[in-house]
Each structure stands twice: as structure tokens, then as C-alpha cells.
Write a structure and sequence with these properties.
The complex is a heterodimer of chains A (406) and B (481). With 406 residues, chain A is of the alpha/beta class. Helices cover 35% and strands 13% of the residues of chain A. In chain A, the strands form 2 sheets. In chain A, strands 1, 5, 6, 7, 8, 9, 10, 11 and 12 form a 9-stranded mixed sheet that branches. Chain A has a 3-stranded antiparallel sheet with strand order 2-4-3. Chain A starts with a helix and ends in a 15-residue tail after the last helix. Chain B is 58% helix and 2% strand. In chain B, helix 2 packs across helix 3, helix 10 packs across helix 16 and helix 22 packs antiparallel against helix 24. The chains are: A alpha/beta (406), B mainly alpha (481). The interface between A and B is large, with 57 and 54 residues.
């Protein structure tokens, strides 16, 4: 309980400082060589139930379809936190409300992939490759952004704080996946570091050779970051919270970070999902407190940062026979940051009546997830029209949401 | 006993090898041409074992590669008592006196639950230690590689509820005995295993109408006798759960198993099934449940079964059936041509290349179809094919963390009695045994496992596990197989 109050307090303070940051300071900061516009992508693996995350409490059908796991209306005990007169945050996400209030949190509801698959594996693959329905795409959309946007070969332009390189970041642009800054060093001193560096520079296998090159180069830069890190907010002690903390640490060091990736896992709640309490509530608590801490910790850096959450698909509109939800279609994405035109739920709401649902069972999709990707890449990261067609091949925008401040 | 008997056996093998060599090639392994040169032996060992031990390449060359492969394909002929004596037995599950438990205070009950969770964790750790011990020291190497492959194919996750408690039996009874038998039997064993029933939620899946009727019967009985009526496993479990935590209600279909059965276990994601097929398959499996979640025994509960007609992948399953509906579904999916292709692709990816060559996949799939899924024959086709030995695939795979750690220990010839350090290494590299959360199992391609963080971790693990050979084991060549 104590910790939640601290999150809220520090979050609010950061927002204040953001709003009043003098323009000359922001310009000076941007001019510093290592400070770039930043996108932090968060993947909720396992398909979060978007209807319990961003609750359409104004929709009577929602409560009819979810008699035991529906989140109560605002005002009721443990009710949703009202965002407007139709949508509300799950109550365990209250830590994000200050970001909504100061207009740095936006939601895109009923968003997702035009592909109809309900396979976790395929849907994650499509969202990370950025090419729904096309399996042959070799690299991830975030890596392609790095390929297209600049010639700087620094592997620290893109980091994933994860044990494995996520699909979205795989590709020929140098990038880095690691567990954290402090553990990322070869033990045994200079000698062993140099002998490994030498051996890997001569490796036959290009994947091993290239990855090791990036690793040793990044290691040299990362050793210049002060340790231990003292974050300006308290993160959840979960793997997700700790990953966000490492991202903030690298972001604030101004060493050229442009794209970061973290994942939040365990969203596949076929049984006993819960509403206000239970499994999903615990996971959303971790998610929201992690994001609130990240926003607070980034401080002034949030003014040129966009945080984007995504998940492979939503879950069926109706609860199943085991107080859980089976795989569905449309979902909700969150976009946080200084450049975001927040305090709004974007996208057309398709409704939850049978005839309004996708295949009669799931939330339909009115916003292609690539509409969101594309706006962030062009309006926030300032990539050209030509560039975006290489980041998202085969995609042409169907609508302009206007998520990002001009 | 092994030392006494091994020498004459080795002599027989050596003679047999001589004979084989005189015959020119490998009659023993199915008549295909298995090369005999040292590089081929090194290659075969890197693919069919968890890494060569010191001197093993020489030994296999002396024996003859074809002969060695034949032994590995028929592992019951290999004396493996040495590894048995190394295995630390699993701890006994804690005794739960349920009657006494009812009279406990809230605090005491929570303490009991905490102890029980801890015991389960320890038992999974012990099982993981056994797995590593077998991987390092078993002489039935291909068998251990395949147990790992098939467990991963039919993955269950120790972190999901009671799954952990079922995993030791799952690996021992559902996976291990079937890896040289028929795919259909392997599939059936996993389908009925408490681990899979729990992990993919099928134990809770019920025909909505049938579940309602059971509820009504119970209500009536309770009204008449004040008794408990028909007790469902869920209710038994619920009685032991704290009141404030609502248990899963069982009043309808759960598609989780049906979907993964087709997407992952059999046809593959592009295997040609629809959402409607998933629903029909889920209906067929209603009533496949657990007799008692505490004990973990399979049971068919007819009162939960949807007896209506089903249509699965174009096959009609007549109304009025019971447990056999599920068996019929397993027959249909096991015989589906997409399944042969999917299994062949995964095996070729594991044993040959991240990008499975189509000609070899077709060949392996053809054996799968012709032999009705005889997994020994499928493996024989794979390892005796010229593609398996082709130059372009040698050293083309990057070791997964499990392969890296185990082959590292095998290369040193070290005597590891307590593999805790190795388990920590696997944890660091993101491949702890039995801890893969999604039903896909751990991935088997280089792109997943080669990252900057992972390479640095491998260098550090090499220094920790084998200070004298760290430069080799942590170096680039050793990461390949």
C-alpha cells in the first residue's frame, strides 16, 4: 500500500515538472549528442483481456457477457476508474490516472491485427514482424525502423531488456538484448574479455560474430554509466518492473537510445481470470505500477519519449465456462509520453452486441495496430513517408488518429 | 556389474563393426550410406548426443558409426545402470491429512499451503537435476535428446498451479515410454495425463447443458438429504480452498486444449483446421478430466460430456458417444497428413537445420505416414539420410542453452554430483527445465538464443564451470553443433 502511494506521488510530481519545463531546457537537452527521440515498446505476451483492462463500462452488453468477471462501474465498490463517460481503467491501474489527467496517456481501443488468427504464436509473430498474415518476413518492425532511420551502427540505438532477442527487434541493424546493465560484462578481467572478443571476431558464423561485436562495443559504452543506479521512482520488484528500470537507466544516460523493448508475461487467463480481484488484477497491478514508475523515473526524458503497449489479440467478449476467457480478436493499446495527445480514447467503438462482434464472439477491430505503429514512427520519431513503407511493407494507412502532438 | 560385462560386449561390438566395415556400409542402420570418416562421426555425435565426451569420437569410430547409430536407435540394448546409480531420488510429496486440515486456523492452513508449494518446487528442482544427470551421463544419449524433444513438443509448465506436482509422472509415464513407439500412443498418453489436462485446462471443460444438469441434481440432493450430491473434482478442490477465493466454475466449454492439440501437437498452425474445428474438438473432449486433483488420476466423467454429434476436419463423430469421442479425434489428427509434415519439420529443424530442407522433410514425413507414426522408423529415416550428413549442415545449428551447458560439462569429462550450478546457468540463459510457460515449448532456432546478453552469459558460465577450458567452451566454435 505504502509503495503505491509513493508511485502516485512521484508520478504526479514528474508531471508537474514536465508541464512547466522551460522550452530552452528541452532544446538544450535535444541538442546533446546522445539524446534522441525514444520509443519504448511493451509487449503483453499471452493476450491480455483488453475488455477488463480498459473497461467499456458504458456498454450494458459487457456486463451481460461477463456475469462473474466483469469489472463494476465507477462508483461501485472496486469499480473501474472512470476515464470518460464510457471507458474506465481497471481499478488496479489507478496509478496511471494522473497520466491520463495531465494528458500524457491515450488509449486506442478495438485495435489489433486484421489477420484473424487466434494462435498466440502466429499473432505475436505478425505483430512483431509488423506484417500480419505474412510469415516470410525475416526481421522485426522495430529493427527495420533502426535500419531505415539512420546509419549509426551503435548497438545501443535499440535494446531489449529480455533474455532473448524479441522478434520485433531481430534483424540486421545492430541491437542488444540483455538482462541488465550490471550483469552485462565478461568476468575474469581484461584478459578474458579481450581473448573472447578476438575469438568471436574471427567466428565463421555471421550471427555469432555480429552479435558478439555488438556486445563488446556496447559493453564499453555501458561501463561509462554510473553504478549503482538510483531511480527517481520505486519500480515493482517483478521482472517487468526491473526491466523498465534498466530501460530508464540507459535512456537517461543519453548514449543514443532510440528504441527499447520490454515484455510483460502471463496474460493467458483461460481459467479463473478474475475481475477486480484475482489473476488479471495482479498482472495489471504490476503493469500499471511499472509504467507509472517508468514515467516518473524518466522525468524530463518523458518529454521526448513514447511508451506503447501491445498484445497479440484480445479475448472473447463473453467469459467461458471456467470464469476465464478464451482467445479473441480486438484489444486495447496504451500510449504514454510527453508527445502524446492524451486524455482521450481513440478509435471507433464497434459495440459488443452479437452482430457487432467479430465472428459473433469477439471485440471487432476498427484500428489496425499498424495505424498506431505508423503514426508513432512518422509523427514522433519523424521518419519520412518513404521510410515508413519500408518499416511496414504492404501497409497503407487507412485513417489518421492524431495521437501525437504536432 | 557393468565393468565386468562391458569388456566382452565391447569386443563383440568391435567384431561386429569390423564385419560391418567389410560389408562396406551400414546394413545395421537401415541400409543407407552412412559415412565413416572422423568428421562425420563428430557431426553425428554433435547432433544425436548432448555433445561428445573426451575420447568418444575415437570410440565410435572404432565401433563404426552405423553400428553406434543402430544401438542408439535401440537403446534397451545399452547398459545404462551407471547413470541410474547417479540419480538422486525425488523427495516424497508431503502427507496431507485432509481431515485434520479442516480444523486448522486460517494461519495454519496458509502455512500448510506454503509448505506444500515449497515441496512441489523442490521436487521440480530434483527432477531437473535428474534430467541434467541423465543428459550428461547416460549412454542412451539419443533417447535423452528425444525425451527432451518430445517433452518440449508436448510442453507443460511447472509454474501453473498443480502442474508441477504432475510433471514427474508425466515425463516418466506419458513421454519416456513412447518415444520409440507410435505417435498415436504418445499423443494419447499426453492427452490423458493429469499434467496436460491441468495445464491446458481440459479438466474443467464441460458441456454447458450437462454441467447445468449436474448442478440441478446436486441442488435437489442437497435439499432432500442435506448431503453433497455428485461431487465434481472442482468442488472437492473448492472445499479446501479459502472461502474468499472463488474456484473456477465449470459450466461450459474451454477451448484451450483443443486449439493447442491441433496447432502445436499435431497438424501445425497452417495444418488446415478452423475455429469451428476447435469448438468441435473441445466438445469431443468434454468429460476428460481428473478423478481428484490432489491425487491426479485421469477420469472420464460422462455427466460432463457433450453427447451431441461432432464434425471434426470433415469426419463425422456420431451422437451418443462418450469417452471414445476424444479417442476418435486423436485418431483423426494423428492420421492427418499435416501432422506427418509438422512432426517431420520439427524433427528436421532439431537435428539438421533451422531452415529444414523440404526434400528431407518430405522423406521423413513419408516414413511417418507409411509406418503409421512409428517414431523409431521416423528417426531412422532422418539419421540415415544423406542430407543429415551434408556438408552445408555441419556445424550449422547453434546450441540451445541446454545443449551448451550439458555439452560443456561432457567436454570436460567432469564428475558432477550436484547439478545445482548448472541449473542456475540454465535459469540465467532463460531455459530452465520445466519452466517454459507457453505451450509452444522452448524455441529451437539460433535467432532466439543468440543475443548479446546470452553470449556474454555463456562466456561467464564457461569460466565458472570449466576455468581451464573456458576459452574453448565460451568461444564461438563450441556454440555450434
Amino acid at each position: 500500500m505504502t509503495s503505491r502511494r509513493i508511485f502516485l506521488k512521484s508520478g504526479a510530481m514528474t508531471m508537474l515538472s514536465l508541464g512547466f519545463a522551460p522550452a530552452f531546457l528541452a532544446r538544450a537537452a535535444a541538442a546533446a549528442s546522445g539524446r534522441r527521440r525514444l520509443l519504448i515498446a511493451i509487449f503483453q505476451r499471452g493476450a491480455v483481456d483488453g475488455l477488463n483492462m480498459i473497461v467499456p463500462y458504458g456498454e450494458a452488453e459487457y456486463y451481460r457477457l461477463r456475469p462473474t468477471i466483469g469489472v463494476p462501474r465507477p462508483g461501485a465498490q472496486d469499480g473501474a476508474v472512470a476515464l470518460d463517460d464510457f471507458f474506465g481503467l481497471h481499478p488496479r491501474m489507478a496509478a496511471l490516472k494522473p497520466l491520463w489527467d495531465n494528458k500524457s496517456l491515450a488509449i486506442v481501443h478495438a485495435s489489433g491485427s486484421p489477420d484473424r488468427t487466434r494462435s498466440h504464436f502466429d499473432a505475436q509473430d505478425y505483430m512483431e514482424s509488423g506484417t500480419p498474415g505474412v510469415k516470410a518476413t525475416r526481421d522485426g518492425w522495430l529493427n527495420r525502423y533502426l535500419q531505415v532511420s539512420g546509419a549509426d551502427p551503435s548497438p545501443l540505438r535499440g535494446i531489449a531488456v529480455a533474455r532473448q532477442m524479441p522478434r520485433a527487434m531481430q534483424g540486421k541493424a545492430p541491437s542488444l538484448a540483455f538482462g541488465g546493465v550490471d550483469a552485462f560484462d565478461v568476468r575474469g578481467g581484461m584478459d578474458s574479455r579481450q581473448s573472447f572478443e578476438q575469438a568471436f571476431s574471427e567466428a565463421d558464423n555471421p550471427l555469432l560474430r555480429g552479435t558478439a561485436k555488438d556486445a563488446f562495443e556496447a559493453m564499453k559504452t555501458l561501463r561509462t554509466i554510473g553504478t549503482p543506479y538510483r531511480p527517481a521512482a520505486e519500480y515493482p520488484r517483478s521482472p517487468f518492473g526491473q526491466a523498465l528500470q534498466e530501460i530508464a537507466r540507459v535512456a537517461k544516460a543519453d548514449i543514443g537510445l532510440e528504441v527499447a523493448f520490454a515484455e510483460s508475461t502471463n496474460w493467458d487467463h483461460h481459467v479463473n481470470e478474475g475481475g477486480t480481484q484475482g489473476q488479471i488484477a495482479q498482472r495489471l497491478d504490476d503493469l500499471a505500477n511499472g509504467l507509472a514508475a517508468l514515467s516518473a523515473d524518466l522525468g524530463d526524458r518523458l518529454s521526448d519519449t513514447v511508451v506503447l503497449t501491445m498484445s497479440e489479440f484480445g479475448r472473447a467478449a463473453a467469459e467461458n465456462g471456467n470464469r476465464g476467457t478464451d482467445h479473441g480478436h480486438g484489444n486495447a493499446m496504451m500510449i504514454i509520453g510527453g508527445p502524446v495527445k492524451g486524455g482521450r480514447v481513440y478509435g471507433k467503438w464497434p459495440g459488443l452486441k452479437t452482430e457487432e462482434r467479430f465472428e459473433g464472439r469477439d471485440l471487432a477491430i476498427t484500428t489496425d495496430f499498424r495505424d498506431v505503429f505508423s503514426e508513432i514512427v512518422t509523427s514522433h520519431l519523424k521518419l519520412s513517408k518513404d521510410g515508413i513503407s519500408r518499416v511496414l511493407p504492404g501497409y497503407s494507412p487507412t485513417q489518421t488518429l492524431g495521437l501525437i502532438r504536432a | 556389474m557393468s565393468a565386468k560385462f562391458r569388456r566382452p560386449i565391447a569386443l563383440v561390438f568391435a567384431l561386429a563393426a569390423l564385419l560391418t566395415m567389410q560389408n562396406g556400409a551400414s546394413q545395421a542402420a537401415g541400409g543407407a550410406n552412412i559415412p565413416t570418416d572422423r568428421a562425420a562421426v563428430e557431426h553425428a555425435l554433435s547432433r544425436l548426443t548432448f555433445g561428445a565426451t573426451p575420447g568418444q569420437v575415437d570410440d565410435v569410430q572404432r565401433l563404426g558409426l552405423a553400428r553406434w547409430i543402430d544401438q542408439q536407435l535401440n537403446p534397451s540394448s545399452i547398459d545404462d545402470s551407471a547413470v541410474q546409480s547417479r540419480l538422486t531420488p525425488l523427495p516424497d510429496p508431503p502427507e496431507v491429512d485432509r481431515r485434520a486440515a479442516r480444523n486448522l486456523s486460517e494461519q495454519e492452513r496458509m502455512e500448510m499451503q506454503r509448505r506444500s508449494r515449497q515441496a512441489t518446487r523442490q521436487s521440480v528442482q530434483a527432477l531437473a537435476a535428474q534430467k541434467l544427470t541423465r543428459a550428461i551421463y547416460s549412454d542412451r544419449q539419443l533417447e535423452e535428446v528425444l525425451v527432451d524433444f518430445w517433452f518440449n513438443h508436448f510442453n507443460v509448465f511447472a509454474g501453473k498451479g498443480r502442474t508441477a506436482a504432475y510433471i514427474p509422472d508425466y515425463e516418466r509415464d506419458a513421454i519416456r515410454p513412447h518415444i520409440w513407439g507410435s505417435f498415436r500412443e504418445l499423443l494419447g498418453a499426453t492427452a490423458k495425463s493429469p499434467a496436460m489436462l491441468f495445464y491446458l485446462d481440459n479438466w474443467l471443460s464441460a458441456d454447458p447443458k450437462a454441467a447445468e444438469q449436474v448442478q440441478q441434481i446436486n441442488n435437489r440432493r442437497r435439499g432432500r438429504f442435506g448431503g453433497v450430491g455428485i461431487t465434481l473434482p472442482r468442488q472437492q478442490q473448492q472445499q479446501q480452498q479459502q472461502k474468499q477465493q472463488q474456484g473456477p466454475r465449470r459450466n461450459g466449454l474451454n477451448e484451450n486444449y483443443a486449439r493447442e492439440l491441433m496447432e502445436l501437437h499435431t497438424l501445425g498452425v497452417d495444418g488446415g483446421y478452423t475455429q469451428q474445428d476447435i469448438i468441435e474438438v473441445a466438445r469431443a473432449f468434454t468429460g476428460w478430466t481428473l478423478a481428484n486433483p490432489q491425487e491426479g488420476d485421469f477420469r472420464f466423467a460422462p455427466q460432463l460430456h457433450d453427447r451431441g454429434e461432432k464434425k471434426v476436419l470433415g469426419h463425422a463423430i456420431k451422437a451418443g458417444g462418450g469417452m471414445e469421442d476424444g479417442e476418435r479425434v486423436l485418431d483423426i489428427v494423428a492420421e492427418h497428413p499435416s501432422t506427418a509434415k509438422h512432426i517431420a519439420t520439427k524433427l528436421v529443424r532439431r537435428f539438421v537445420s533451422d531452415e529444414p530442407p523440404a526434400a528431407l522433410v518430405d522423406k521423413v514425413a513419408a516414413t511417418f505416414t507409411k509406418t503409421k507414426g512409428n517414431l523409431r522408423e521416423v528417426m531412422r529415416t532422418l539419421v540415415t539420410s544423406p542430407e543429415f550428413y551434408a556438408a552445408q549442415y555441419r556445424g550449422a545449428k547453434v546450441k540451445t542453452p541446454l545443449e551448451f551447458v550439458v555439452s560443456g560439462v561432457r567436454a570436460t569429462g567432469r564428475d558432477v554430483r550436484e547439478p545445482r550450478q548448472l541449473l542456475q546457468a540454465l535459469q540465467q540463459l532463460g531455459m530452465a527445465p520445466y519452466q517454459c510457460q507457453p505451450p509452444t515449448g522452448y524455441d529451437d532456432t539460433a535467432e532466439t538464443w543468440v543475443s548479446a546478453g546470452a553470449l556474454v552469459t555463456r562466456m561467464n558460465i564457461a569460466q565458472q564451470l570449466a576455468p581451464q577450458q573456458a576459452a574453448t567452451i565460451g568461444g564461438p566454435d563450441f556454440q555450434r553443433r
